[in-house]
Amino acid sequence: MTHSFLPFVAFALVASISPGPTNLLILAQGARHGLRSTLVPILAACLAAAATVLLVGMGLGQWLTRHPQAQHLMMWAGVLWLSWLAWQLLRSTGVTGAPAQARVFTAVDAATLQVINPKVWLMAVSVIGVFAAPGLAVWQLALVFLVIALPCMALWAVLGAGSAAWLQTPRRLRVFNQALGGLLLLSAWAAVLS
């Protein structure tokens, strides 16, 4: 074990547990559709984030730094897609089965969100730049990140599922969805505006 392992674990914990677009969408999914419905999206999101760490460590991060237009395209694709998801939450009626009811957050959605999220790429570049060291292979960093991210994201799903009983009224569910939609929109545009 290298001297950078424990600081990396702390970094991975903070990066995984802090509120962000994927965690907010997992929270909403758990609240609307139950804990079971979040398991596959959680696995997909965490695998995609770990794969991003692995790809950056294998050289893709250097390619991205040489091609800022690719970074810019990824940023705008991510912001626009997150804005669309936020719009779905904002216009949710709070009535189950209503036409404007927010759709299910799928495994493909979760993995795609991680792949086009500039925050995930910056996190991966930070992991490789700061914590990669002799004696700690890139695949080990990706694996440790995955192991830490899974329970962190699952906690967001549990919080969502735990709030489901409180969200039984259409008004509360509508307010909850709109609050999450607003936070998602804010988190999507904060990176662009900063």
TrEMBL record:
Q: Which residues cross the membrane?
A: 38-61, 73-90, 120-139, 146-169, 175-193
**Which Gene Ontology terms cover its molecular function?**
amino acid transmembrane transporter activity
Q: Where in the cell is it found?
A: Cell membrane
Q: Does the keyword Transmembrane apply?
A: yes
Against Pfam families, the record matches this protein to:
LysE (PF01810)
Xref: InterPro entries: LeuE-type
Q: What domain of life does the native source organism fall in?
A: Bacteria
Keyword field:
Cell membrane, Membrane, Transmembrane, Transmembrane helix
- Main location class: membrane
Q: What are the recorded Gene Ontology BP terms?
A: cysteine export across plasma membrane
Q: How does it sit in the membrane?
A: Multi-pass membrane protein
A GO CC term assigned to this protein in UniProt: plasma membrane
Keyword flag Cell inner membrane: no
Its protein name is Membrane protein
